[in-house]
Amino acid sequence: MRNRLIKMICFITFVGLFLGNVSVHPIKATSTRIPFLVPMRDGEKLAGDLYTTDPNLPKPVILIQTPYDKSKYWTQFELRIPFSLDHYNVLITDWRGRFASSYAKKTKSTNATDGYDVVEWIAIQKWSNGKVGTYGGSALGDVQFKTASQKPPHLVCAIPMVKDYRVDYETYFFGGEFRREQIEALELLQFTKIDTILSQPVMNQYWKTIEKLTDLSKTFAIPMLFITGWFDHYPDKVIRAFGDIQEKSDPSVRAKHKLIVGPWGHENLGEIKQGDLSFPGAKNFDDQEAVRFMDYYLREIQNNWESTPVIQYYQMGEEKWMYANSWQQIERKELSLYLQPNQQLGTSPLSCQGASDAFFYDPSNPTPSVGGKRFSPFNPTIQSGPLDQREKVESRADVLLYTSHPLESDLSINGLIQAEVYFSSNQLDTDISIRFCDVYPDGRSILMAEGIKRARFRNSLEKEELLIPEQIYKTTITLQHLALTIKKGHKIRVIISSASYPIFEKNPNNGGKLYEDSRVSIALNSVYHDFNFPSRLILPILFPGN
Question: Which CATH architecture fits 332-542?
Answer without folding.
Answer: Sandwich (2.60)
